[in-house]
Amino acid sequence: MPEHIVKRVRGFTPDLYLSLSFQTMVKFNVKRGSKIQCVIKNILDDQGNVKKNLNKQIICDVSKRDGRFYLPSDLISEMNIIGVDYLEVILEKLIYSDNKEIDFYPGELVKDDVIIF
User: Fold this and answer.
1) Is 72 in contact with 83 (CB distance < 8 Å)?
2) pLDDT digits (tens, 9 = 90+) for 67-116
3) Less Cβ crowding at N or C end of the chain, within 10 Å?
4) Residue 33 DSSP symbol
5) H-run or E-run covering 53
6) What is the C-alpha radius of gyration for the chain, rounded to an integer number of angstroms?
7) What's the confidence (pLDDT) of residue 116?
8) DSSP structural state of residue 89
9) 38 pairs with which residues across the strands?
């Protein structure tokens, strides 16, 4: 089973990212060069209201700093995501640089909802 997060997008276009919890980062040994397969469920405003319902599966890069995963730039421009939006995301798999895949929290659903509205 996956990990469910709701977090504010950070950074500036086109380098928008989300951060993993420290616990997840350490438990799964997330390093630069890895990729995260996830589903973006919804884009939320700062009040928690759904702006767009996406249900779109994407692959994000962990490219600049461990624990930060960067949204694909084509998705950012297509959905007009900005640095004040919140995303509801289901983290499914971690893909290491050697292409080995591991499921996030197999057998359970973990919620890491960091919501600051």
Assistant:
1) no
2) 899 999 999 999 889 888 999 999 999 999 999 999 998 877 788 765 55
3) C
4) T
5) strand 50-62
6) 13
7) 54
8) E
9) 58, 91
Other CB atoms within 10 A of residue 90 CB: 18
**Three-state SS annotation for 69-116:** EECCHHHHHHHCCCCCCEEEEEEEEEECCCCCEEECCCCCCEEEECCC
Residue 107 phi/psi, 5-degree rounding, is 85, 0
Reduced to 3 states, what is the DSSP secondary structure of residue 26? Answer: helix
Amino acid at the residue 24: T
In angstroms, the Cα distances linking 88 to 75, 108, 113 are 15, 18, 9
Which pLDDT tens digit goes with each residue over 5-43?
999 999 998 899 999 989 999 999 999 999 999 999 999
CA distances from 58 to 41, 68, 93, 96 (A): 11, 15, 11, 16
Which DSSP symbol is given to 108?
Answer: S
